[in-house]
Amino acid sequence: MKKIVTLGGGTGNFTVLKGIKNFDIDISAIVSMADDGGSTGILRDELGVLPPGDVRQCLVALSDSSRLMRDLMNYRFQQGGLGGHSFGNLLLSALEKVTGSFEKAVEEAGKILYIKGKVIPVTTHQVRLKMILRNCQVLEGEKEIYLSQEIEKGYSSIYLEPYPKANPQAINEIMNADLIVVGPGGLHTSLIPNFLVEGISDALRKSDAKKVFIVNLMNRKGQTTEFKVSHYLAELERFIGEDIFDYVLVNNQKPPQELIELYAEEGDLVENDLKEERIRPAALLGELRKGIKKDLLKRNLIRHDSKKLAQELMKIVDHL
Amino acid sequence: MKKIVTLGGGTGNFTVLKGIKNFDIDISAIVSMADDGGSTGILRDELGVLPPGDVRQCLVALSDSSRLMRDLMNYRFQQGGLGGHSFGNLLLSALEKVTGSFEKAVEEAGKILYIKGKVIPVTTHQVRLKMILRNCQVLEGEKEIYLSQEIEKGYSSIYLEPYPKANPQAINEIMNADLIVVGPGGLHTSLIPNFLVEGISDALRKSDAKKVFIVNLMNRKGQTTEFKVSHYLAELERFIGEDIFDYVLVNNQKPPQELIELYAEEGDLVENDLKEERIRPAALLGELRKGIKKDLLKRNLIRHDSKKLAQELMKIVDHL
What we know:
homodimer, 7-stranded parallel sheet, 10 strands, alpha/beta, 13 helices, 3-stranded antiparallel sheet
């Protein structure tokens, strides 16, 4: 059975995992530990736990349990002192307290949710993502970076503090992979943080696995405005190594003009400016859900289809 | 297979269920819905859910899942906005929100915990326990009643507001029981509230099941000070019906004098003043855990042994 390892965090990762789960492959999801916003941020601050949010999404994506259990994991309390916490985050934090280890907590949550494959924190050290902008302003934490509109003017440094060693299990999975999938996801907030962990980029370079990058559909205003495929690749390869990706999956399906306009406040479409052999254009857009309300987050309107993504990845796997 | 139905709430109920779980019988635990203290009270107030605390204890008692899962259910968050909440309470409340029904939530939690038997809320209406003292003071809520030291001076009324109908499933279980077990537990706060629900006392009287009352070991100062077995029976039978109990299990083992003295601030030993046939004296005390600290809640020092309780109950079951 071929082994696919994903590296990421957030919703992009969720979409990939949800799609590939249905194929006969061995899956390991390595997850960024930089998240510090929302419910996750509060739990880190108040309980001193490792960030559960991205791990929770991976667990749900890989879960073979009932719809109810998956809904439960994503349920967010609305009121009072619990307001904003998702139940799954509380489960992971309580399990971390009871077992004494975040890794063990993730493993136990995986059993409760009957997940296919494994979910592995990229590091088990408590870290904060920091970024120094070219104007010398320091952005403290993933949330602050995520909300900044100044990143497109350039930054001089991005790093995790304190500089963490990789989880040995993550290194092991990378070394034994047949295919490694990076993206889609927030470039500075979900993808790069994985390569700021000591040993991860090294392992990627040394691994015999083929590497594929799934390019984001949309840029994020103030962060990656007008980025093209070449910019994404250049930015990632700066941290991992030149020409690291053997395949680059790029969407070539145009979203309805109406949606592009709706989305314009948040960002523009990522265009492909490369004609290299490794570029694989494909129709990857998700269907627009009927009756979707215009006041929903616009960025949810243009998104990858997990089935289409999985099919393209499986074409690569079939040729390994 | 014989069917045992327990009626109660709190730790006493937990002890009974934990013991009888290991025998080849059909168990249904009917649980009081009057709790409004601590984590449970906050969840009721903030989220509008039904009280999870007593149900959680029953689920854990009947659970066949791993030690870790049971520890998780009882884990209490220590800090921040979550401080004081037990994880199991959050699970039940989140499940109630996701399924839209407390009964369904209890059922699903039972599946997650692989429970033996069933846990059934005595009513699914939102109610508050109230008590009017003889001096006309109104005690609002189970917690206020639990903390009052004035009850021994007499009360004129105890009731649930609004007056709730029984959960039909609870009635059904009572009518089909072979043995119904009441107690041990807080007389006014865990036991009587079950009989203030419309239809429950009626069902007990109509049911062909044998009924057994397990008398508390200790009185609660200011509430049942110097109560003897006859007082407990009189008080309960006032709500259920005269001579309702076919068996009365009474501990006849004396705790060490040292412990009685330690406990004196909280209450005195319940003495047996009856010589009726239905009275069944037996050694029911739990072993004192070694190395137990004196600053622990003293009331945990003198407690029933779940195995001994279960053995006495099984002697009754064997003669049904």
